Automatic annotation (TrEMBL):
Matching CDD domains: SAV4209_like
Gene3D superfamilies per the UniProt record, alphabetical: Hotdog Thioesterase (3.10.129.10)
Upper classification of the organism: Bacteria, Pseudomonadati, Pseudomonadota, Alphaproteobacteria, Hyphomicrobiales
Highest taxon in the source lineage: Bacteria
Coiled coil: none
Protein name: MaoC family dehydratase
Domain (MaoC-like): residue spans on this chain: 15-113
Natural source organism: Camelimonas fluminis
Length: 139
């Protein structure tokens, strides 16, 4: 990984996007096992239908993990100072999570050069599923 330098980024720059494979039942099963989140709304079709959903859907924290991967594909985890998000939509089976980030501010704090990013996870139709921000220290 090439180290991103504060002097080489500008407000308005976008970081490399992260595009995942379509969410499948297998994806949800693997995530449930890895996270320990076995909420039936995410893995049991009959339960989801009783809850008036057309099918199971992705765990919100799965999409949050994709946003985390967006950041750690750009910089080492130790450079992340803040990472927050809000859930804005449901990720359905077959959705292709696509995560993007854009630098919205450059500043100094606590003796470090930092950037603030707006981050977003959407599906292949551009429908937002998570929105948030991150603060990253850059050398």
């Amino acid at each position: 990984m090439t180290q991103v330098q504060y002097s080489s980024v500008n407000v308005g720059d976008e970081i490399p996007l992260l595009k995942e494979k379509p969410v499948s039942r297998f994806t949800l099963t693997l995530y449930a096992g890895a996270s320990g989140d076995h909420n039936p709304i995410h893995i049991d079709l009959d339960f989801a239908r009783k809850a008036r959903m057309p099918d199971v859907f992705a765990h919100g924290m799965l999409s949050a993990a994709y946003l985390g991967r967006l950041l750690t594909n750009w910089v080492p985890q130790r450079q992340i100072r803040n990472f927050s998000m809000r859930f804005t939509g449901i990720t359905q089976l077959g959705n292709v999570p696509t995560c993007t980030g854009k630098i919205v501010e450059k500043f100094e704090a606590d003796g470090e050069k930092r950037v603030r990013l707006q981050i977003r996870c959407s599906n292949q139709y551009g429908e937002e599923k998570l929105a948030g921000e991150a603060i990253v220290a850059l050398p």
